[in-house]
Design a protein that fits this description.
481 residues; Rossmann fold; Dihydrodipicolinate Reductase, domain 2; Alpha-Beta Plaits; seven-stranded mixed β-sheet
């Protein structure tokens, strides 16, 4: 697609309808924006407020030409030169639009808009992690076949340049592992629970009142949003096809203040982590609450901030950190994609860098480690009346399944009352832990599993003490030791 041109400075001469310019010709790249919500308006403000800076860095005039939004009657006054329509097809079918930016979120109609734009030969920018993690294989294949680019920097990590860093900065590395905090809402809640000793429900309500959490926070607090983002990172890091549905996912809604305190005793902070490890013939893929040692950089990430830790075979450990959401940080990331594509259009180098870092023909299916094959240390929290035989009964079951206890902590001892007992194990296999738990359930003990690899555990009302729902935490002894 040919960029538009406009003479901006210097004396010009016309000869045989050829326009010559002594100084320079500024190339115009027109952008069509679908969705003028929080992120969409942020992009518009970035393009306007940083226009001169972007021109100095690129020699391009990036113009927000049209906006499609069904809920708006007008645009703010500063965007008087931008046309507002209520039909995205008007942008997609406009021959003067070079780049379509989709910022409405969700699967449909976003997918239709993206696919129609690609079919029309438009380049696409999106922040839609749900769409890419579920339908990315089809979208990227269509873009490659049509010879257009898809930018998605803002889909993971908000304003953090994770995608570009992974796609270009770490291109010479075999990525061995990914571990990160990818949801600001969950991290904000866990930070306040840790610092204030507050309960999950109380902090969540405050977060909603302050605008840090959605009215329906399910995707954020149950790990779904994080799984979407991990799927995108894994596709780029390993050159593999994966959707978020293949990632074991658990949230933080079952975390209680007592879990925070036990983590503190072990020198850790609880974080909702995305974790993947590359084993060559298979890869781990999971999202779950994790006990992160205080000595690890991720333990210090507080509030609504995000951070991702990569380990590459050449570069070693790399940490990306910054604001993972918000109007202007995310708008900045979308603008970076627009700039990259605009530069490629102007230079005639579209497709210079593959959208997913790997060439499309080199992205393949790879096995994801089955849940029952994961091996790691576990923590068990048992709440029961202080009676003889409880600890011995649990220890016997664990021993029968080759699960070795490393240490035990007991809290809250009151004669005849309930006590909390935490057992820390050596490395164990998930299948053995699952079998042991089935036996422990039969003992009618109140059990709370604190593990690294697992899944949601069944609810159990103990005959000793009314038990809260069991939920897993995990710990990585490779980082703890």
């Amino acid at each position: 697609m040919s960029p538009k041109y406009a003479c901006l400075a210097g004396k010009t001469l016309c000869a045989n309808k050829i326009l010559l310019q002594y100084n320079f010709i500024m190339k115009h790249v027109n952008v069509g924006l679908i969705g003028f919500g929080t992120v969409g308006s942020g992009l518009a403000e970035v393009l306007l407020s940083q226009q001169e800076r972007l021109q100095k860095r690129s020699g391009l005039f990036i113009r927000l030409a049209k906006v499609a939004d069904i809920s708006r009657k007008t645009l703010p006054a500063q965007f008087a030169d931008t046309a507002l329509v209520n039909d995205a097809a008007e942008l997609i079918n406009d021959p003067d639009i070079d780049i379509i930016v989709e910022l409405i979120g969700g699967i449909q109609p976003a997918k239709t808009f993206v696919m129609d734009a690609i079919a029309a030969g438009k380049h696409v920018v999106t922040a839609n992690k749900a769409l890419l993690s579920q339908e990315g294989k089809e979208i990227f294949a269509a873009a490659a076949a049509k010879g257009v680019e898809v930018g998605f920097e803002a889909s993971v990590g908000g304003g953090i340049p994770l995608i570009k860093g992974l796609k270009e900065g770490l291109v010479a590395n075999n990525i061995l592992s990914i571990m990160g905090i990818l949801n600001g809402t969950a991290n904000y809640i866990l930070t306040r629970m840790t610092d204030e000793g507050s309960a999950f429900a109380d902090v969540l309500k405050d977060a909603q009142d302050l605008g840090f959490a959605e009215a329906d926070p399910t995707y954020d607090v149950e790990g779904v949003d994080t799984a979407h983002k991990l799927a995108i990172l894994m596709t780029m890091a390993y050159g593999m096809n994966i959707t978020h549905n293949e990632i074991v996912t658990e949230g933080i809604s079952g975390i209680e203040p007592v879990d925070i305190e036990f983590a503190r005793e072990f020198g850790c902070r609880i974080k909702l982590l995305a974790i993947s490890r590359n084993h060559g013939d298979h890869v781990e893929a999971r999202v779950h609450p994790t006990m992160v040692p205080n000595s690890h950089l991720l333990a210090a990430i507080s509030g609504a901030y995000n951070a991702v830790h990569f380990n590459g075979d050449m570069v070693g450990n790399v940490l990306f950190y910054g604001q993972g959401a918000g109007k202007m940080p995310t708008g900045s990331a979308v603008a970076a994609d627009v700039m990259d594509i605009a530069r490629d259009i102007a230079a005639g180098s579209v497709g210079r860098v593959p959208s997913l870092s790997y060439l499309p023909e080199n992205i393949r299916d790879r096995a994801v480690t089955p849940l029952d094959q994961l091996a790691c240390p576990y923590y068990f929290r048992i709440t029961a009346l202080d009676q003889s035989g409880v600890l011995a009964a649990v220890a016997t079951v664990l021993s029968r399944h080759q699960i070795s206890i490393e240490s035990v902590i007991q809290k809250g001892r009151e004669e005849g009352g309930p006590v909390s007992i935490v057992m820390q194990t050596h490395t164990a296999v998930e299948s053995a832990v699952a079998a042991a738990l089935a036996e422990i359930d039969a003992l009618e003990l109140s059990l709370r599993l604190l593990c690294e690899s697992g899944c949601w555990r069944r609810n159990r009302e103990s005959l000793f003490v009314g038990a809260r729902r069991a939920v897993p935490l995990r710990h990585d002894n490779r980082r703890r030791r």
